Amino acid sequence: MNALEIKDLRKSFKGFTLDGVSFCLPQGCIMGLVGENGAGKSTTIKLILDILHKDGGSVKILGKDNGEDIRLTKEDVGVVMDEVGLPTCLTAKQVGKIMASTFKNWDSAEYSRLITKLSLPENKEFKDFSRGMKMKLGIAIAMSHGAKLLILDEPTSGLDPVVRDEVVEMFYDFTRDETHSILISSHIVSDLEKLCDYIAFLHKGKLLLCEEKDELLARYAMVHCTAEELARLAPAAVKYKKENAYGTEAVVLRESVPDGMKISPISIEELFVFTVKGEGK
Amino acid sequence: MKGLLLKDFYMMKKYCKSYLFMLVIFTVVSFFASDNLLFVFYPCLLCGMIPVNLLAYDEHSRFTVYSGTLPYTKAQVVSGKYIVCILVQCAVLFVTATAQGIKMAVNGSFRAQDFFVILIIGFCFSSLVAPISLPFMFKFGTEKGRMVYFFMIGVVAASVYGLSTFLNVEQIDMGTGLAGALPILLCVLCAAIYALSWYLSIVFYRKREV
What we know:
By secondary structure, chain A is an alpha/beta fold. Chain A contains 10 helices and 14 strands. Helix content of chain A is about 30%, strand content about 30%. Chain B has helices at about 1-15, 15-30, 35-45, 50-60, 65, 75-105, 110-125, 130-140, 140-165, 175-205. Chain B is elongated and about 60 Å long. The mean pLDDT of chain B is about 80. Chains A and B meet through α2 and α3 of A and α1, α4 and α5 of B.
């Protein structure tokens, strides 16, 4: 079963259109949603959760249409939004009590364990939390009610590198259970590269690409050469290129590069930047 | 639903201490200094602001968006505010009614029928402000909706003041004739406005994209 099935998802605002986004997240996998500011990542997530009303298309969460009693579906979905919207006067302890009355499967012991693990104060008001602490509290809530699917919108932003690594490790542990899946959006592509099985690129409301990460890294490579050297390659082999006074950088199809030409592995971040810039031309 | 009410309870504990203070002040003033109904029912009117303020805090902290990630329907989010409203109004009514009853008993003017009639009329008037304002807030947000609220407070306060200028709390006789039916009519009207308001708020909030 797929944890998420999104078909032809559409939504229009003034000045922005999410244009027929489709992708599937298989159960047990992690998908990274990569996109610049305003690409449509948060909109996609809000449409999945039915916080925004879709103009068209369909969304299935854990096999159920998000139009049919999403309240029950949300028992199985842990969510961290880009801004954790908890009332500012609440403490982590009070939040625990509220969530215990909210989720049927709330695990108070797990919540306490995560609060301690993430070094969060129990009795400090939310308004006095740093952005990183707010995010950590959001993550603790999302992971304390036996969710089968985590939907995370920029969950690592505001976290210092050490905590970020710890949190990424927590997400990784979460998917050791093969019925658990994660959809995660982030600007910090290096985190996604570490974590994800699938990568989706969103740009100006359009899905440019959605594939297995290992497949992408195996298919594409970077070349640093002169314009003349690049011109010797078949045009179809060169996906995107960038020229400057010091030479040419290009994303190429590995299998089309002749022996002897020096190539280097590509990172997801490089592939994203080149893909987006290529789209703009 | 219980979680939403608990959240509102924590928020009231933090933000609404001043309302408690006002309730005490107005109750004391109405007890010792004045026969004007405005002093008796103003706390009820004021406490109608509590759900409105809680909604404003929810918007400010973006809980309105966050609640969309929790297993609650929009109808439950709306209903939470109405339940808070009813509970608060009942608690305030209990305090003001007790104070007013004691006052009338001390003055030797306590007549059960008059007491309940006055109580019902005042309560109906003062408790209607929030249900009239809430649908606007759920539709347009608290910033714009709050203007309706303040307008309604003005209208109701003026009405209560005007009525109580003509009707003396302790000498009124509304137990007979057309006046006798007024409390029942008001109760029915009040319940109908509440129900319509609740329904409209749910409809508006379902359509609203936060």
